[in-house]
Amino acid sequence: MLNNKIAWLESQYLFPHHFQQQERYIEHRIEQRAGAIRAEVYGLRRLGIDSGALAEGRFALRQASGLMPDGTPFEMPAEDPLPPPLRVPEHTRERTVYLAMPVYQAGNGWLAREETAQGIARYRLGLLDVYDYSGETREPEAVETAVLSPRLLLEGEDLGGYTLLPLARIRELTPEGAVVLERRFIPPCLDIACSQRLRLWLEELIGLLRQRGEALAARFAQPGKSGGSSAIADFLLLQLINRAEPRLRHLQQRPLLHPEVLYRELTGLSGELATFTTAAKRPLAQAAYRHQALEASFAPLIEQLGRQLSAVLEQTAVALPLEERQYGLRVAPLADRGLLKQARFVLAARADLATEQLREQLGPLIKAGAVENIRELVNNQLPGITLNPLPVVPREIPYHAGFVYFELDSRCEPWQALRQSGGFAFHIAGEFPGLELEFWAIRA
Questions:
Q1: Which are the contacts of 297, defined by CB distance < 8 A and separation ≥ 6?
Q2: CB–CB of 197/297 below 8 Å?
Q3: How far apart are CA 322 and CA 318, in angstroms?
Q4: Above pLDDT 70, what percent of the chain?
């Protein structure tokens, strides 16, 4: 009822109360309208903290602009005065510093003269030289104005009767009395430009997307990357990244970026990446967006995106190059020894023979083993690693017509020699016209 519209009636006496009530009504209607359009329409656009004052045990502002939770705009010091510096008491730890402005309370003073130091007043009386832009005279007239009277308050003080906007969090005071701020704290903001932490997160994420996109694109320049479910997944991932990177770059270049808009974009990106990086293929649980707790909202999400984008680079199927040597030997060096525990190995072959004929004839004539003892296996006719023919091509590797596939048995005795070996070796006895071989490691 405090914000009801004035009933303007004929012959009524006018008092300052009428105009003050009409002003409250208009301000309230504007705030109602803005609040109905979107939530969280308050916070900082710019914030500058005086580092010199911190060294002296005080908290002071150099500049600040934004909207208070009650809708009051401020722009300090261009349009509004800076609040007096706050002397931080000794032994202060883990306390939030607020920008505070008194709220309207019926019966309380709303305006105080500058020399008045007692009581809570939202405005101080000031004088402003105003020119009559429609008259002929160019002489200014001193007009009494209501100037905002902001102040800085510390968590733990009496905060009743104020609209409050968190500015920073004091971590501790040094033995010399200097104020140390919590660097992870992110104040409520209308634009991420006022938070170095949010800006850096966005910049690093765009860099990660660019690197992952370039790495995925480079895979398609490799031979044998034309098909298979692994190639399809890589292509869809590249499509996802190629969409997300310019969208985030566009947001980064906007003159005003609300943190909720960024949060919405990043949760969508995380949900899409979950299709490729989680066993359930479903979005991971996200912390709810809280405008008053941006650190708690963004930090887990950024960490999660970092893990997801790192997983993007792990190829399910890795092509291991085969180097042709003398006497029918082919060698595949093994740079990543972790594959021996994480992957299964498949040898693909084609020749100028019918597929079934190639599968039947080639298998018994291939001797596989560690590169260090392949000659011993061949010369002494010892059994090598067992090759089991596969009826269909594994879905992780590209399909090529005319190829047959053999999986190496990791449970057989000759496999154990690979643990101390530099790689795989294959010896093929006999002649197979047009023989081509591919060797793949498929991560589990």
A1: 259, 263, 287, 288, 289, 290
A2: no
A3: 13
A4: 95
User: Per residue in 62-112, pLDDT tens?
Assistant: 999 999 998 899 999 999 999 999 999 999 999 999 999 998 877 677 788
Helix (H) or strand (E) holding 431: none
d(CA 186, CA 193): 11
Q: How far apart are CA 207 and CA 314, in angstroms?
A: 18
For helices 196-219 and 294-312, the axis angle rounded to 10 degrees is 10
Token digits for 278?
């989680």
Long-range contacts of 321-330 (CB under 8 A, 24+ apart): 321/439, 322/426, 322/437, 322/438, 322/439, 327/427, 328/427, 328/428, 328/429, 329/374, 329/425, 329/426, 329/427, 330/425, 330/426, 330/427, 330/428, 330/437
- 442/314 Cα distance (integer angstroms): 11
Q: How far apart are CA 177 and CA 161, in angstroms?
A: 30
Q: How many residues would you count in the chain?
A: 444
**The residue type at 228:** G
CB 154 within 8 A of CB 97: yes
* 3-state SS, residue 151: strand
Answer whether 393's CB lies under 8 Å from 442's CB. Answer: no
User: Could you tell me how far CA 169 lies from the centroid of its own chain?
Assistant: 23
pLDDT in tens, 256-311: 999 999 999 999 999 999 998 888 889 988 889 999 999 999 999 999 999 999 87
Q: In 3D, which of 99, 261, 105, 244 has the Cα closest to residue 167?
A: 99
Q: How far apart are CA 289 and CA 300, in angstroms?
A: 11
Distance CA 162, CA 436 (A): 79
Q: Give CA–CA dist 156/320, Å, rounded.
A: 64
Half-sphere exposure of 207 toward its Cβ, with a 13 Å CA cutoff? 6
Q: What is the pTM of this model?
A: 0.74
Residue 314 has pLDDT above 70, yes or no: no
Burial of residue 115 (number of CB atoms within 10 Å: 0-12, 13-18, 19+): exposed
Tokens of 392: 């269909």
- Strands in 111-113's sheet, in edge-to-edge order, are 111-113, 123-130, 141-148
Is the per-residue pLDDT at 358 higher than 90? no
* Strand residues in 211-342 grouped as ranges (E): 317-319, 323-324, 329-333
